[in-house]
Amino acid sequence: MSKFKPPFCSNSLCSEHWHDRSNPFTAYESWGSYSTKVFGKVNRFRCSTCGKTFSVQTFRVDCWLKRVYDYDDLTERLSSCSSIRALGRAYKVAGKSIQNRIGRAARQVLAFDSLLSSSRIPVEDLAADGFESFCVSQFHPNNIHLLVGRISQFAYECDHVTLRRKGAMTACQKKKRAKLELQFHPDPKGTEKSFSRIALASLSVLSDEARPFLELWTDEKLDYPRGIAGSACASAMQKQGRLVHMTISSRASRTLKNPLFSVNYLDREIRKDLHEHVRETVCFGRNVNAQMERMTLYLFFHNFRKCHRSRGDSRSHAVVAGLDSAEIRKGLRDIWQKRAWHSRTSLTECGEDTWLGLRKTPLRDGFERRPAYISA
Ligand SMILES: [Zn+2]
User: Fold this and answer.
1) Hey, where are the domains in the chain?
2) pTM of the prediction?
């Protein structure tokens, strides 16, 4: 720890915040130390340009914490159908503490994805669909849109939209829905807007040389073509013929030959692996932003930790999707060590909402207050 050199100034408004390995940060001085039970002696530093002080802890995933977790173990347990309270019992801590670590891990994962996506060699067409679940109560159903590689089953993007409850209801349930809608009314164009983001994200696998054309498969829901038209970039690519929207009936048999197989497969995996999405569970999500943090961490587990085929191809879904295995190994080595910074990460719109917790939870007033270090 004593050999630690701060990589940059922690103040995102300071000119010294943008240093990297090729241009090391030197404009700082030692500023004493303090001792902690968990981390021992922690050295402090002060930026000579802006005067901001920071410590070794500022650059760790566990900054501000008094207890260290094994994030790999947490991710695996979460992705093996453990509920938040079961995790709390296992680690002998409160559920809030578990969700705090899941949020931290989700932000690390978003930064990791962003870093790797630049070196991806696109190899496949994509399929997208909405995973149906709910948050707060069954009066607030949602769709979590998933964008998945047709060959690799790699999850490229996910986005959340709260829907209006539909389907058969008793008179009493209809009355309750009307009452709840006075407090929270979902955006009637929510699905369309969410799919616009998915369509935009799908363009990331287009490459002028390696993959100039892309097929995006969905079912025949009318919100999807509207969503593509709602994204200026996706719509322009569609007009040029580089993005081709293909559809198939959602009633077609869900076999390996179905063009939506990959997204149907991921749908099934989520349904059995994430406790809050298991049918008839009592462990449902109470907060949309926390639900998306858990989904982000699960998709990381799916993409990078699970084998593409449990019998046969032992490569991860990420490697099959054209991500560089050496880069993955390098990134995974310190994913739970070095803190990811919002200011230094390039995120998609969906990623930005997950990182900053910008999605609205039904029946909650306003947006959530989040600690300042999250947006630093
Ligand atoms: Zn500074």
Assistant:
1) 1-59, 72-375
2) 0.95
